[in-house]
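Notebook p. 47: complex prediction with 2-acetamido-2-deoxy-beta-D-glucopyranose.
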Amino acid sequence: MKINYSNVSNRTIKKSRKPRSSSLFHPKKMIKSVGNKIQYYYKLHPVLMFLISLSIGITILVLLSLYESKYRMTSNYNGMYKVDSGSSESYPFARLMNLVMVAGHSVYTSSSCEKVDKDDAWFLESYQKHKGQAATFVSHIEKGVEITGKDNAALLLFSGGETRKDAGPRSEAQSYWTVAESKGWFGKQDEVRWRALTEEHARDSFENLLFSVCRFRELTGTYPLNITVVGYDFKEERFMHLHRSAIRFPDTRFFYSGTPSSQTSREAALKGEALVRTQFQDDPYGCLGPLRRKKFGRDPFHRSIPYPNGCPEIEGLFRYCGRTPYSASLPWA
Ligand SMILES: *[C@@H]1O[C@H](CO)[C@@H](O)[C@H](O)[C@H]1NC(C)=O
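Predicted complex, structure tokens below:
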């Protein structure tokens, strides 16, 4: 009887242990048996099994990239939201509110910086070859620096692309910045140099304005409150009326600071200006006919234009081409 009892109790213990031990060891066994099966199928159908593992791998990659791009879109959206709520952390010049734009007219080609006032140090088209032309470029630069120096909230942009084949791949904007540097920022280095940058893609005066507005947004996170354009006095009409209306910027916040052209070039310059003005009247966005062709001629190195990256709110304006004003909404109008 005694033996029987212990047998019984032994059995019950064994019985009660069994399920516990099986629940512990089953998953391992399962993995092992699945592994064995996979190995078995691999030997049986190597190509089929390879294709199956390949497609599983690709599916995982696709899922990961979808997840990543979705994540990126959300973070972009957050970036834009920050702009709207006035956060300043992600933009290097977030506190600047006004744009001062100096439109480039040429590329500086001399290797010496002592000659910035000399005509032969600049790449001049035949229609630009007049005595004293270089000095007028320098006076635009000085004017831009001066206006910026007087406005603590201004960002100065020199604007102009690599427009001259024979001058090599140097931009008008870089040329102007370098001239300002060599002139010691006309005595305003401390106030102005840190907030003087470049817009290096414009191929005509409309692009000088539009691209600089985009560049301003890229640097500050917002669009300019006031815009001041610096250039020749005879181009005032073109900027103030044609280009400004094309981007529908309010005239109460748009200013022009003109300096005279050289005496000897004045007559030809005025004639040329009258022609270009009628062209822009016909084609305010410079995207049809002769203005469009002129831009191709001013892009000898086929530079890709980064905009409207940096100013997503006005992407539509960049894509627009027509004889009537762009009518969709704009951040400033
Ligand atoms: C913009 O220009 C107007 C007119 O000169 C001026 O009253 C205003 O203060 C300027 N705004 C900024 C932000 O500088």
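Notes: The pocket of 2-acetamido-2-deoxy-beta-D-glucopyranose is lined by residues 97-98, 153, 225-226, 253 (CB under 6 Å). The first strand starts at residue 98 and ends at 103.
Next step: compare against the earlier run before touching the bench.
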